[in-house]
Predict the 3D structure of the following.
Amino acid sequence: MSGKGASSFGDPARRAVLAVPLAIVLFFALNAVVGVLGRSTRVDLTQDKLYSLSDATRKALARVDEPVTLRLYRSPALIAAAPRLKIYAERVDEMLRTYRDISKGKVAYEVVEPEPFSPEEDRAIGYRLRGFSVDRAGAQGYFGLVGANTVDGLERIEFLDPQREDTLEYDLTSFVKRLAQAKKLKIGFIESLQMFGMQQMRRPPWAILDMINQSYSVQALTPGNLSFDGIDLLVVAHPRGLQPRDLYAIDQYALSGKPALVFVDPVAETLAAQSQQRPQLEAVASNLEPVLAAWGVELEKGKVAGDRAMALRVTAMAGRQRIVASYLPWLQVREANFNHEDMATSRLKLMRMSSAGVLTTKSGATTIVSPLIFTTGDSALLDASKVLERPNPNVFLDKFEPGGKLLTLAARISGPAATAYPDGEPPAPEGAEAPAGEKRAHIAKSTAPIHVAVVADADVLADDHVVNDSGQLISSNADFVLNLIDTLAGGADLATLRGRGMSLRTFTRVEELEKNAENLYQSREAALTSDLEKSQADLQQMLARGATESGEVTSLTREQQDLLDKLNQKIVDLRRQLRDVRAAVRFEIDALETRLKLVNMLFVPFGLVLVGVFIALWRRSRLSRYVASRKSSPGAPA
């Protein structure tokens, strides 16, 4: 009896029947164990490590002392309506949970799902989060972040834009760092541009100051009696006429390891425009030479950067004729001219710079000079005194000879540096007051790497470069300044954060084909336009020759009619060629997409079938060997 039971249990079919429910039980048991024990365990298999935080962020979170509460306002209806936003929202949620875990509870995190006309939506509106319509009834959806600390500090991101996905870690880390500070960092300003306005003349402060004041505390510093007590970051805007003791104070401040942001300019057009007469170059040029030299950079003296590819188109007078031409000293800085490896410039789109200077690395410099903004190779140095005369654009264009090199317009400087004043503090002018504050020891060499950024244009701060008359942003100038302040004030941690890549990955081969098609189309289109303009000019000349004295055009001659017919035929032929080019490239794209669909629809299932067949044959082979071994063993049943 027992032998029969053992034999029936050893039957392969019976074992298979028993194995199915056992496998189901093991599957659910394994999921339960993973759900309990593996809740805090994550494995990041993405190519760009999208869900892995950098060491800089980990260090920043480890230093959080002030408890911070983050609330993610996430409307389910808005997330469901946008597939791309859904993927991004999952990444944001995952990253914020990681922030909470790494900070060991110092960063609290919760998700709020505001329903229409609910108290949660009222709070979202109170925080000025950006709402989006999610249905025809006008219900609003939100996807923003609000942070608070224990001393009534409040920060918000009105909308977590997927377009900023590659800077998400930087945005969130700087967000937390600002909240974790017990008070706003104080920024000291030394400036000669009257940025703080003039009440007696009813001139308001510059718009850029209002923007900085939203996150920092701004304090004006008076040259001649400088004191940097309590100053967390120093901004020097167009330094001119500073006494040696002022320059020494700036020098010592940077060598102490504190951050500094400097705007120098060979021709400050903001000042030149305020003068009723044509000023001398010395009156509108910055002067910080000894300090810059100590930092390892030099501003090309009496020179302005001119770039034919970046030049702004202006309307000007050339004698009695009004012309529209490129004005070489006024530059439009586009994406290709920004350093995309630096967080201050990685996301900028368009900046305006007027009569910007050129920075060069000083021979023997011990610091590292990293360009932030640079020209194209179609650039050259222009005479600053000539720029100050405001000649018509053709004066520069006619004599322009590009140097073929990229000219640096802004740079970040780091590394060891020595003082520009090895003999110590310069003596005070006779009758001058002693500097306020505690007397500090002379610093001959930096004990830590200096943390400085230099921009060779002060006009980037001016209102006409930042906002329009309605206060709306017209360029990335404000973003550039605020990014520099954030990265400098945040120290090395924020400065070393980089974009981490996108969650959604595109078909690079398809994009390459489409880009090639677009380039080819544009080149053909340019050739077509050129041919049309030339043919139309020829036709106009013929029509002018055939016009009467009263200006009326007589009937077309045979020659003119033939030319017109040829022109029309040329247009038809070129359009057909363009369609053929587009069709040929589209054929390559369609063929690639077809191959991808075949892989997804046929090859993958076919591969799974092959794997299944292989396993079935392998198991049958094992069963056959098992049966054969049982038959050949002594005492086996016949």
